[in-house]
Please model this.
Amino acid sequence: MITRLLPVLAVCLLAAFVLGQPDAASEERKQLRGVWEVVGFEADGQAEDELIGATVAFGEKTLQLADLPVMRYRIDPGKEPKWIDATIEAGKDTTLTSGMAGIYKIERDTLTICYNPRTPGWTRPRAFRLGKDGGALMVLKRVKRGEP
Model:
């Protein structure tokens, strides 16, 4: 009887171990959480100063750039480069595009995001450089860790 229960016990222990492990996205969101300051910004191949000094606050699943509407974000750290998508929460300012699709990397206290707005015909960037099709590249430095 005990020998027949051993495989069941092993499966239960393995399931408890796997379910108790944080997933990669959860761990990555912990690294993103906090307040970041924009130190570099390019759009459509041109350096732009208007966002320099603005802050981006990352929560568990939301982000907010300056006083713009809160956006919900999703990440996929299993992709190479890592993916980030953000959408404006329902009922917010509809004059803005519905969100963005991008890639990101974290190097110590520097976060780099290259993205395209979600408009008809959009595509996700494949590298951290801007092409002739536009898009934006944002470099941020960490100001504060944890919840904004």
Observations:
- The chain has a mean pLDDT of 81.
- The helical segments are 2-20, 24-32.
- The first strand starts at residue 34 and ends at 43.
